[in-house]
Amino acid sequence: MSEVPENLLLSQLNVIAEGLSATFSPFCEVVVHDLQNPDHAILAIHNNLSGREVGQSATELGLARIASAEFPSVIANYGNQFADGRPAKSTSIGIKNAQGDYVAALCLNVDMTLFRGMQSALAQFTQTAAGAVTEHLEPSGAEAIRNRIDRFAARHATTPRALKTPERKQLIQELREQGLLEVKKAMETVAQHLGVSRASVYLYAKED
User: What topology does CATH give the domain 6-113?
Assistant: First the structure.
């Protein structure tokens, strides 16, 4: 395979950066670094969130790559911070030439501000108050029936909806022995959990 000219490599890397930026906009900044020119390493910035400019120098991480070909090619999901204090999550990908030297880097910087806000809002929304009030929004005992069906299916190394007819009949027998068929709307609960009609469940129970 012939060697890819480094200017072409940088050009193609910039195309990838543009695509990634468009996909993850407006949350992710994508930066292309030319490590062959550390004093003016930033070749392109897509969806600029950091306020940096094209032509600025390499970061500490870029300089570390230039100094050693043994530096990790990928450093993913490390904590970072924009100049104005916004929290970020960053991933840096080093690109080597045919000689094994780092010549470029592709960096992704995700603004975590919105996501942390959403996380906080969701935590507040899903929080429930502890108290003595208990209310069930489904027929009493329905959950016990479903749990029993799940355990029966697990015993047969399958799922409730994949149980075969003989196994369903055996299940109905066990539910009857445990008194679970006396639960209000038991047949409807069993049918829904097995993915069959209520008529089929009544038939299994009748043949049992």
Answer: Beta-Lactamase (3.30.450)
